[in-house]
Amino acid sequence: MTANAFDDPFTLFSDPQWATEEQESTKEAAGSRRPQRARPSSPDPGKRPEPALKARPRRTAAVPPSSVQDPEIHQIKDSIQTADPAGGRCGRAIRNALDQAYDGRRTGRWDLTQLTKAESAHVGPLIEIWLQRVLNLDDGITTSLEIAGSDVACTWSEKLDGWTLDRPVPEQREVPYLVIWANEETSRFSLGILRPGPDSRGVASMDRGRPRLSQVGIDQILWVFNGCPLPANVLAKHPKTAMAAVSQSSGQKAVNMLFRHLQGELVQHSAVETVAQQIDSSKRVREAREQLRNEGIVILGPYHPQPAIAAALGLPSPRVGTFVSHRLAPMEAGEFGAGAEIDGGRWRLAVPGDPVTKAPTLPVLGKESA
Question: Does 146 score more than 80 pLDDT?
């Protein structure tokens, strides 16, 4: 049983008591005169950018400059790829910046459409800050970043054609820009380098009158990473479950609901913080592990040997800061298929129709898996 198979979080189980308790908890929270937990507005699908996996193909005859035409931007690209060959660091930087903008532990939010205009305007600077941290970059002289000895500006957009640039300074050479895009629905990001030219600026945008990057400018971007994996935002993938969880009357009920309904999904610690809205969200996971055992559900975390157990069961393997849950059933003697040895018995993933059996106690023997 996995979360992908269901839309309504209250139709996941045959036992009506669980659904009834969660619905009553949601109504109780909604009707409270003195709410203690943040109640964010629902995400607005109409305001989301179109899902995409990477930058669009070129639409004009413009192309990125060669290393002979502009050696500086190629040196910047080489420097980034040397520090981050696969894009994992840059992806984590963008993930951290978005989570910081949502501030889920205090606000219960997890989606860009839930931010105010002022908050949305700070996403780009937050990405700059996190890129500087993960890539160990210095401050520039005229910009926030220095890469490979060059001052580099930064422009961010959640839309593939929404980047804006500063107005050019007369008689000054244009500094290169990092051009960054990410999509929460597809969990992908792109990062490229552009030196704006005369044809790069289009009409002024609503962003303080800054000119938008023209299609010619977009086609001139030298992509460092195009369509790289972005650490997933599980709440953005399942907004109905997320909204039902943050509407629970307590952080513990919210965390229990998250792991009960998002079985088979990697759940980030930031998602737990968002629905729990408590400083001790790690304690909520530990208590959820105990409370959900009676429902046959285990919550596997990053500590050895739990990632190996998850892999043996056919689940995603949790790493630092992630968890995965699923209901288990004991394997019968002679039964074949994916399974794992846990607490002196052999267990497999439960399927609809399996009777509910109290889940085994999970071992915790070593350090977190990186």
Answer: yes
Q: Would you say domain 3-35+234-349 falls under CATH 1.10.10.10? A: yes
The CA-atom distances, in angstroms, between 228 and each of 23, 70, 89 are: 39, 25, 11
Q: Are 79 and 191 in contact (CB under 8 A)?
A: no
Where exactly does CATH 1.10.10.10 map onto the chain? Answer: 3-35+234-349
Is the pLDDT at 115 greater than 50? The verdict is: yes
Model-level pTM?
0.86
CATH for 47-229?
Answer: 3.40.600.10
Higher per-residue confidence, 246 vs 369: 246
Which residue blocks in the chain are alpha helix, DSSP H? 16-31, 71-83, 88-102, 104-107, 117-120, 123-134, 215-219, 234-237, 239-246, 251-261, 269-276, 281-293, 306-313
User: What number of CA atoms fall less than 13 Å from residue 47's CA on the CB side?
Assistant: 11
What are the respective helix, strand and coil percentages of the chain, to the nearest 5?
A: 35, 20, 45
Contact at 8 Å (CB) between 253 and 282? no
Closest CA to 9 of 250, 224, 265, 222: 265
Identify residue 362 by its one-letter amino acid code.
Answer: L
Residue 241's SS3 state is: helix
The residues of the chain that CATH labels 3.40.600.10 are 47-229
Look at residue 213 and tell me whether its pLDDT is greater than 90.
yes
Number of H helices, E strands in the chain: 13, 12
